[in-house]
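Hi V.,

You were right to ask for the full record rather than a summary. Here it is.
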Amino acid sequence: GFAIDRASVFSGCQRLAGVTASEFRALDAHHGTDGQVAYFDATRIDCDPRRLRTLGGTFKVRGYTLATLDVIDDAWATDGTTLFVQGRPVWDRTARYLSEEAEAALRQLDVARLTVLDPWWATDSQLVLELRAGHVVEVAHAPSFEVLGDGYARDISHVWSRDDHLAADPASFRVLADGYAHDGAKVWFRGQLIADARELRVLGGGWARDATGILCGATRVAADPETFVVVGSATAAEGSWDPDRLELDDPVWLGERVAVGRDLDRLWWGAYSGSTPATAVAIGHGYTVDATRVWHAGTPVDADGTTFVAVGGGYARDAFRAYFHERVTR
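Predicted structure:
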């Protein structure tokens, strides 16, 4: 985001050159302009700033190492002539790796007719652009291409989940809810194939049930299928749980971003986060307590349960120490 004082505009700690602070306005979380110059974060965009409009859309960028990738939102914009990703022309090979073929395909996009369909896909009616990867999908048939929700899309011959191609039947493929989809023979969760899934029923909050048992995303958990229910958001206190308000975009510190589930014996915080006894009480921000013990998202916390309170944002305290998640703050 941007910050402004009387004379300057900042992106993070960096002052933006050539900007009139009194005229500057942010277009989204990353783009801003004063009508004379435009920026993506601290990168100046070589564009017509008066015509610049943002398109939203995600983009997958390199992380701290070559092996890691980060996905950012609001990465795309256009001035009607050039399509920009992270403030640079989408075909710019100096900003990211592109083959000559990929660059040529991107240069063929009709930018004036480009429509962003959802955070992952865009089309100019002749070509399909996968936004997160920043590439034209050569095999996609644009006239029959349609987005289906939850990152899924298809054309007459193919099915995709975000930037992954699925071995699915496009004619029978259906999106169920909450990232789950099927084609009558196979089931996927956010593009990940679920082995041996039959008679799937979506429960909400990242959970489902099939003929075998309970699924958290694509992972089977040892919850009792006969008594398991989804009860509420992992950030809410138990008294505020509402199964119709699951808030799946919980903060990253909750890890799996799924709602809380309950069976006869335990509260479930995800496939890998673990569980807590059903007698424990959720006090908000991922914390649960019983008479003497404390957990954060299913992980035990070495704290005094009798005086423990959640402060917010992952922080908590008891009568002796302060905590962030399951760790003691120093």
